[in-house]
Design a protein that fits this description.
By secondary structure, the protein is an alpha/beta fold. It has 3 domains: about 280 residues, 2-enoyl-CoA Hydratase, Chain A, domain 1 (Alpha-Beta Complex); about 180 residues, 3-Layer(aba) Sandwich (Rossmann fold), CATH 3.40.50; about 180 residues, N-(1-d-carboxylethyl)-l-norvaline Dehydrogenase, domain 2. Helix content is about 50%, strand content about 15%. The protein has 29 helices and 19 strands. The strands form 4 sheets. It has an 8-stranded mixed beta sheet with strand order 12-11-10-13-14-15-16-17, with helices on both faces. A 6-stranded mixed beta sheet has the order 1-2-3-4-6-9, sandwiched between helices. Helix 9 runs antiparallel to helix 10. The radius of gyration is 28 Å and the shape is globular. The two termini are about 35 Å apart. The mean pLDDT is about 95.
Length: about 725
């Protein structure tokens, strides 16, 4: 009982203060023992008037033990299912105590933590930013398995509960109160426990205070049961909408919808069994393992600074200069100002700079119109951005980020002319996506303070930043760049210098393989559909239209001029395609007159017929599974090469970078994690099959062959 402190006061109220081993309270073996003993003791307690669950941690309760969940194997499914049923029964016994049970929520109560709260008769929370409640399991490929689905449906009704379950929606105390997820709030932490006890005393004579709504006689689910005419239409459309969103590759939303529907159809206890079965199926799946490994463990590792030099003191940017107020520069300016950083946004003309600042104003206006920001706060943020055409305004910047066109000569010129305005020991960052940092740093008077800071478009929405270390970049510069990225609330991955770095280099293989399939005779629309079928956000040809064939032509031209271009394995299919579609036919992409597709002003999109006429062969003979594997394996193999060559510094950076920067299918957990559940040996065998059929670009790199022979994982 040491981790659950049990105290009974003079009024007969027992306070159970959870203080488990480790930094947070979690549903693990220690919890199972402690909760079982606590419920046994409460059921036997004489003179009991009520129970309060509180936490000695900064968080109320963090949820399930993900280390345990990620290790569950399919052959353990039956044992795991029985454990889930036991967990549910403990919470069911808690909510059937003859006295009221109150959750005193002092911090985050997510996942299993909120399921514990839902098992209490009354929920009171501290009205603080520290408090968040919700059921985010879907984001890890799971569902709330401790009764969360069933209780949310019974509490809110099916339609209202679904966003919390299917989207993993998390809310603060005020929003939770308004939504009916909690019953009341207190303004200070000191008031929390006394208020919980006072509520118990105020309701001593109530016949319903100790009875959950769904256990009260005559209870009806808000909005009605699943068979009502109103819900019938929702339940008919929901699976179709889910299929469109997940393409059948993410089982958790489908399992959640199934469990929620059954919760609105069956009695409470039988619905709990359905939830337990679905949770077991998910917990033993590869998809859940991939998502937990990357979106929890990997993301925490990356954001926690695993790739940041540990012996450098943390820093904050006070004034940032941004050179170039175009699409990238204006987005960096917005993100920096939102973090409270003074911004100098410079372009070649005042008009261009003002236009770049107007982008921030437009985004802030949206926030104000939606009630997410006050007009005063908008004015405060806008005042942080100085739009200018004068170099002198950069004086004293502790960080300058160059965000101009991908041209080495231009970037060198700008570095030489403006680097002197940096504050002493200031950092120079280049937002290049392809040009080697080491060569860009040749123009710098202090290459040790020169680093790549590669943002993704649109900057205000994309969470990733790729930090690239040149040969002379020192650890202090890396640490300061890392801290800046975290300061603007983005996720930094750290890579070493290479042509295209990690993200652009790997992303290019997805486009390249789509082009090759097209040239081999597959219909262009089918090529794009195969990309979406493996879980990519859009098809490879569509994304090339977005990034533009014009840009591809310029990048290759620059690489050739600099002597950096390396002839691809199996021939240069992309250059051949770009030369034909752009150079010969002047189709440079969506924003340059169209590319593989023709785009209408009304948003319509149709395939450019000459592309079909030139390449399509109805009898091409390439099987769909081969198409899918080719599109996926090309990117995985390139990621392996980046790890093998030292471009990637860690597996976690590779997985997070591939998901957040490249758009790798979520179900894979990232291109390296995919191999862990697919199996390294199986991966090598399949890669060699593809190599024999389609070319040496599918040859498995030595690093994965070695893992296959040793039976090791990428960790």
């Amino acid at each position: 009982m040491s981790v659950f402190k049990y105290e009974k006061d003079a009024d007969g109220i027992v306070t159970v203060t959870m203080d488990m081993t480790g930094p947070v309270n979690a549903m693990n073996d220690e919890y199972n023992v402690a909760m079982n003993e606590t419920v046994d003791k409460l059921e036997a307690e004489q003179g009991l008037t009520g129970v309060v669950f509180a936490s000695a941690k900064n968080t109320f309760f963090a949820g399930g033990d993900l280390n345990m969940l990620v290790s569950i194997q399919p052959q353990q499914a039956e044992e795991f299912y029985e454990g889930i049923i036991e967990t549910k029964e403990r919470l069911r016994r808690l909510e059937k105590l003859p006295v009221p049970v109150v959750a005193a929520i002092n911090g985050a109560a997510l996942g299993g933590g909120f399921e514990l709260c839902l098992s209490c008769n009354h929920r009171v929370a501290w009205n603080s930013k520290a408090v968040q409640v919700g059921l985010p399991e879907v984001g890890l490929g799971l569902l709330p398995g401790g009764g969360g689905v069933v209780r949310m449906v019974n509490l809110l009704g099916l339609e209202t509960a679904l966003p919390y379950l299917l989207e993993g929606k998390k809310v603060n105390a005020e929003k939770a109160l308004a939504a009916g997820l909690i019953h009341e709030t207190v303004d200070t932490l000191d008031e929390l426990l006394p208020r919980a006890k006072t509520w118990i005393l105020e309701n001593k004579e109530s016949e319903t205070a100790a009875v959950q709504p769904w256990d009260q006689k005559g209870f009806k689910i808000p909005g009605g049961k699943a068979g009502t005419p109103k819900l019938a239409q929702t339940l008919m459309m929901a699976p179709v909408m889910l299929q469109q969103k997940t393409r059948g590759l993410l089982p958790a939303p489908e399992m959640i919808l199934d469990a929620a529907t059954e919760a609105a159809r069956l009695d409470f206890d039988n619905a709990q069994i359905v939830e337990a079965r679905n949770f077991t199926r998910l917990a033993t799946s590869d998809v859940a393992k991939n998502m937990i490994s990357t979106f929890f463990f990997g993301l925490n590792k990356v954001n926690g600074g695993a790739s940041r030099p540990a012996d450098i003191a943390s820093s904050k940017v006070k004034k940032v200069g941004i050179l170039g107020a175009g699409m990238m520069g204006q987005g960096i300016a917005y993100s920096s100002a939102m973090a409270g950083i003074e911004v100098v946004l410079k372009d070649i003309s005042q008009e261009a700079a003002d236009k770049g600042k107007a982008y921030t104003e437009k985004l802030l206006d949206k926030r104000v119109s939606r009630g997410r920001m006050s007009a005063e706060k908008k004015a405060e943020i806008l005042s942080l951005i100085k739009a200018t055409d004068a170099d002198a305004d950069l004086q004293g910047c502790d960080l300058i980020i160059e965000a101009v066109f991908e041209n080495m000569e231009l970037k060198h010129k700008i570095t030489k002319s403006t680097e002197g305005y940096l504050a002493e020991n200031g950092v120079w960052g280049s937002n290049t996506s392809t040009l080697p940092i080491t060569q860009l740093a040749d123009a710098s008077s202090n290459a040790a303070n020169f680093i790549g800071i590669h943002f993704f478009s649109p900057v205000d929405k994309m969470p990733l930043v790729e930090i690239i270390c040149g040969e002379k970049t020192n650890d202090e510069t890396l640490a300061r760049a890392f801290d800046y990225v975290r300061q603007i609330k983005k996720t930094p991955i750290v890579v070493n210098d290479s042509l295209g770095f990690f993200t652009s280099r790997t992303f290019g293989t997805y486009i390249d393989e789509g082009i090759r399939l097209t040239q081999e005779g597959v219909h262009p629309i089918q090529v794009d559909n195969m990309g979406k079928a493996i879980g990519m956000p859009v098809g490879s040809l569509t994304v090339h239209d977005e990034t533009s064939q014009q840009l591809s032509h310029k990048v290759v031209g620059t690489q050739k001029d600099m002597g950096l271009f390396v002839e691809p394995v199996d021939g240069d299919a992309m250059s051949e395609m770009v030369d034909w579609i752009y150079v010969e036919n002047n189709r440079g992409g969506r924003h340059h007159g169209g590319g593989y597709y023709t785009y209408g002003e009304d948003g319509s999109k149709t395939i450019w017929q000459p592309l079909v006429d030139k390449y399509h062969k109805p009898d091409h003979g390439i099987e769909e599974q081969d198409m899918k594997d080719r599109l996926l394996f090309r990117s995985v193999i390139e990621t392996l090469k980046c790890l093998q060559e030292g471009v990637l510094r860690s597996v976690a950076d590779g997985n997070i970078g591939s998901i957040m920067g490249i758009g790798a299918p979520i179900w894979t957990g990232g291109y390296l994690q995919f191999i862990n559940t697919y199996g390294a040996k199986r991966f090598v065998e399949r890669a060699r099959e593809l190599q024999a059929k389609f070319g040496n670009r599918f040859e498995p790199p030595a690093i994965v062959v070695d893992k296959a022979e040793k039976g090791e994982l990428f960790t």
